[in-house]
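so the lab meeting is tmrw and i was supposed to have these ready like two days ago... anyway. pasting both below. for each one the top line is the aa sequence and the line under it is the structure tokens. i havent really looked at them closely yet so no promises
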Amino acid sequence: MTTPVVGIDIGGTKTAAALVDRAGRVLERREAPTPARSGPEAVLDAAARLAADLLGATTGPVGVGTAGTVDPATGGIRYATDSLPGWTGTPVADALAARLGRGVRVTNDVNAAALGECWAGAGQDRADVLLVAVGTGLGGAIVRHGRVEAGARGAAGEVGHLPAPGAERLRCGCGRYGHLEAIASGSGLAAAYLIETGAHVTGRTVAQRAAAGDGVAQRVVERAGAVLGAALAGLVALLDPDAVLVAGGAAGSLLPSASAAYSAEVPAGWAAVPLLPATLGADAVVVGAARLAID
């Protein structure tokens, strides 16, 4: 069977759908803003419209990577943040199957990104991979032999809620303080910079200012990267992967200091496990969602 498949990426800001061939290459892509404030039905309608435009060239199921924790048994959303209001409890698999007239498989967007990277990106030819996605928040996923480790609640690999030194005054997206996401993420960079300077800017702006030579921004970025790298070194000893991949919009700014801390902290028995940048960029979720559909 060589026909392409459709993968969908539902995020709080944008939704994308792509036609992906059996080698993991994106053939066509559609994208639109996510109508998050209009509620789950509008979000599902938008995703279905994008996918329907690509389905004529395909057979078989559609794959979806979405924000939120996904119940692996039902394809519904167990928990989601306010980036998609009302998304918790949405039966994504069933609702999209009804709209598209074919089966739908659903996983968390970071899980999908990990599947994509292991299929057609930086994790190719590696059996066991830990991927960490550093964006506005901090997500994680574990892939073993081409399959996502879901855990009992579909949330295995969520590294963002590990306790982290230096984050005690920083609020995590879950509402608590002191977690890794609260320091090693776009929102964490913004919060730390605010404490240091009183300036309200985005995490992206902090990274840009660091690159331009702003000393405070450089300290914030270097501290966040060092904490992330040390945490990943500990996780390597716990999970024993073949490689650790770092993806997401904030990955580039944190990787230099994260790599240095990782090399310094990783136990000797795991010194050969590389810390690598992911390579698929914005296509990772749709490619991984397509892989999910194939599997």
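ok protien two:
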Amino acid sequence: MTAHSEKTSLLHQLNEPFYLSDEAIAFYRENGYVKLKNVLSAEVLSYYGEIITDWVFKLNKLTKPMEERTTYERAFLQIMNMWRENEEVKEFVFSKRLARIATELMGVSGVRLYHDQALYKEPTGGITPWHADQFYWPLSNPNTITVWIPLQDTPMEMGPLAFAEKSQTVEIGRDVEISDESEALLAETLKQFSMNDTPFELGEVSYHAGWTYHRAGANKSGKARKVMTMIYMDKDIKVIEPTNEYRVADWQTWLDSKPVGSTADGKLNPILY
């Protein structure tokens, strides 16, 4: 296969529909997350994973030794909106296959990009404490969803993502940022929920709702746990008054400071499906 035809094949895989069963949709809506096997091929993950990794290390500014970092900093290297840096990263982030799954799981008419983010947990990287993402987002309804894409097999020792099932409906802890405090408070609160804490095979991805509580273990392997994520939102979602400093920052950074009450359609929020 020529390089051109190989690239055409990869792009086709990123954009062709994935068969999503009624059972998977029902599971997501009940539990606030779903794990799906064989969504992306080894070839797609290898090709785009290499490019994403290059850009993570090119853009990373966190160089402190692990012992000098906060709990949040120990959890992962976090690089956002890489789609603006490189055309091939943009191809991956704008995948219609992945955006369509998000649309179907939420039952909306289409989705916009909120932002992408690479989350690389280095060897010896610490836990990612319990949290719900939408704490950080000034958005008007719960139709938000994140796809979590490991770029390698992710066994338990690497710290795969874990979910508190059905926790998207609990109001407790919605005003808590990611921290040691959130881990302590929520670990206690979330005992009432079953936890799904299982490895990810290569090609397996998860989708979780903005208010679903999740965490990840430490990376005890000798290799980085490389993950790419995209956050999608209902294409008609509105901007709400930011209620904490993080939401103010997100409103300015990702939502173009769009007026409160208007559709969240800033220049960084294209419709992907």
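from a quick look at the 2nd one: The chain has eight helices and ten strands. The mean pLDDT is 93. will dig more after coffe
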